[in-house]
Amino acid sequence: MYEKDGQRYFIVDGHIHFWDARPSNQANRYGEGFINCFYDYHRNLSPESEVWSLEDFWWQSEERILHDLFEVGYVDKAIFQPTYLTDFYVNGFNTTEQDGALAEKHPDKFIVNGAWDPRDGEEGLDRLQALAERWSLKGVKLYTAEWKGASKGWKLSDPWSYRYLEKCQELGIRNIHVHKGPTIYPLNRDAFDVADVDEAASAFPDLRFVVEHCGLPRLEDFCWIATQEPNVYAGLAVALPFIHTRPRYFAQIIGELLYWLDENRITFASDYAIWTPKWLIERFVDFQIPEDMRGEYGEITVEVKKKILGLNVARLYDIPVPPELDVTDVHAGSGEPVASGPKAPA
C-alpha cells in the first residue's frame, strides 16, 4: 500500500518475473543478447539512482525480490508472467515452475500465471491442463514472437491458437496477457504486432486480453482496436518508465489510453526486474498531464490513479481489496465523464 497526501493506494503489480539469465543458463548468443537488450531498457529509462550492474540484473534472489516489491516497493500483490525462451536458455528464462516455487512459499504475496504455445499442438494442450491444475491458473502470458526451431513467431488468429483459447475458456483461465509492442533482440518486430488481438478478442468475448506494453510503438493501432473490443485492456509495462525520461511522451500515452479505453481498462506493471515498482508508483502518483496538453487529455484524478495502480487488476483476479482502499465507480454509475473524458471543441 502506498500513501501520499492523505490518500492510500492499493497496489497490484500485474507483470513481474523471476528470471535466470546468468551466463551459466545462456544456451547461445541469443540468450546473451536478449538479457543485454532488457538491460539497455533498464539502464536507459531508469533514474540513475535505480540503475543496477549487469551482474545484479542477471538474476535476483528471493530475498531481493521480496525486498524490492513488498518491503520498499509498496506492492500488495504481484503477478508472475512467465517467458520460457527455451531456444535461448538452458533451463528456460522465466518459467511457470520457477515462478510457482516462489509463489507457493508466499501465497499471500504472489499469483502465478501459465503460458502456452500453439506450435506445441495436442501435447501442449495436455501441458496447459496440467499447469492449470497444478497452479490453479487464472491467467496466462503469451509471447507471440518466441522462436521455436525454424519458426520465428505465431499469431493469436492461427487455428491452433483458437484451440488453446477454447481450452482456456474450458479451464476457467480468463486473463490472457499477451506481449504486444516493443521488440527485443533478436525477436522479430512484426511478430509482436498488435493486429491479431482484434480478431481473437471478437471471437472470445468471455476472455480478457491484457495487451502488455499497450502495443507500443503502435499505440494508435492498439487504441482503435481496444475502443471497439470491451474485453481488451492496456498493460503499462514499458510505457510507464517514460514518465522519467520523456514525461510529455508518457502524458500522450496515458492521455490516449484514457480517451479511448477509459480508466477501468488500464493496469499498472513494473515489469520487474527491468524496473522496480517504488519509483514508478511514486512518480505516477505525483504525475499530472502538462497544462498545455489538458485541452485534449484533461487531468488524471486520484480515483483514476487508484484504479490503474491496483483496483483494475484486483477486479480481474478477484483479489480482495480492503473497503477503505476501494473507490466508488462513478463512471459506470452516473454516466458522467471521469478524468480525461472526451472534450468538446472550444
Describe the structure in brief:
It is built from 14 helices and 10 strands. It has helices spanning 29-45, 54-58, 62-71, 96-105, 121-135, 159-171, 196-203, 219-226, 242-245, 247-260, 277-286, 294-297, 302-317, 330-334, and strands at 2-4, 7-9, 12-16, 77-80, 110-112, 139-142, 175-179, 208-212, 232-235, 266-267.
Mean pLDDT comes to 94
Q: Which series of helices and strands comes N to C?
A: EEEHHHEHEHEHEHEHEHHEHHHH
Q: Roughly how many Å apart are the termini? A: 40 Å
Largest sheet, in brief, is: 5 strands, parallel
**Low-pLDDT residue intervals, each spanning 5 or more residues:** 330-346
Q: Give the class from helix and strand content and strand pairing.
A: alpha/beta
What is the share of helical residues?
A: 40-55%
Query: What's the β-strand tally?
Result: 10
Count of runs of 4 or more consecutive helical residues:
14
Strand content: 5-15%
Radius of gyration: 19 Å
How are strands sequenced across the largest beta sheet? 6-7-8-9-10
Please tell me what the overall shape is.
Answer: globular
GO molecular function, one term: hydrolase activity
Keywords: Hydrolase
Protein name: TIM-barrel fold metal-dependent hydrolase
InterPro entries: Amidohydro-rel, Metal_Hydrolase
